[in-house]
Write a structure and sequence with these properties.
The chain has about 160 residues and is an alpha/beta fold. It contains seven helices and six strands. Strand 5, helix 6 (about 135-145) and strand 6 form a beta-alpha-beta unit.
Length: about 160
């Protein structure tokens, strides 16, 4: 249900390309996207995804980079020196690992730092922690694309638990 609602937000924002990295939390979203006529490209590294999304934006597409927040550090330079600098629209849709109840200690440092990394890059973001938060996601995405900007959303683990 949550996965479907997230994909509907992307469709409502006219997303027509998804660049993705593997993530257990996002697997349902990826499965749903694969059933739709939305182009999806799997990549191995987040900065590779930023580059592919930049090319798509230059071709008039509205790309989403679907990844874990832990990969944000891997693509900071590409975001700052490519998409942000040249105002290439991109939406980062990230599972937010490292919060309350995180079982993997290595996820915690980047989980805490990721919002501050976006703030340092002047990238607007939102946190999606409950199903009610999804109501504003599509309009936030549309605004990012209209502004030819980079924006982001953190999808918390609590989002999927709240829907159960």
């Amino acid at each position: 249900m949550i996965d479907t609602r997230i994909v509907h937000c992307m469709q409502a924002a006219a997303v027509d390309m998804v660049v993705s990295l593997p993530c257990n939390m996002l697997s349902g979203i990826l499965d749903h996207i694969d059933m739709l006529p939305i182009k999806r490209i799997s990549v191995c590294r987040e900065e590779e995804g930023v580059g592919i999304a930049a090319g798509a934006a230059l071709a008039g597409k509205w790309p989403v980079l679907l990844m874990q927040n832990s990969g944000l550090g891997n693509c900071v330079n590409a975001l700052a020196s490519l998409t942000c600098l040249y105002r290439l629209p991109l939406f980062l849709l990230m599972s937010h690992r490292g919060g309350a109840g995180e079982q993997i200690a290595a996820q915690i440092p980047m989980g805490q730092a990721a919002p501050r990394v976006l703030e340092a890059l002047a990238i607007p973001y939102t946190a999606v922690a409950t199903p009610d938060d999804l109501d504003a996601l599509a309009s936030f995405m549309r605004q990012i694309y209209a502004d030819r900007a980079v924006g982001a959303a953190f999808l918390s683990r609590e989002l999927w638990h709240a829907a159960q």
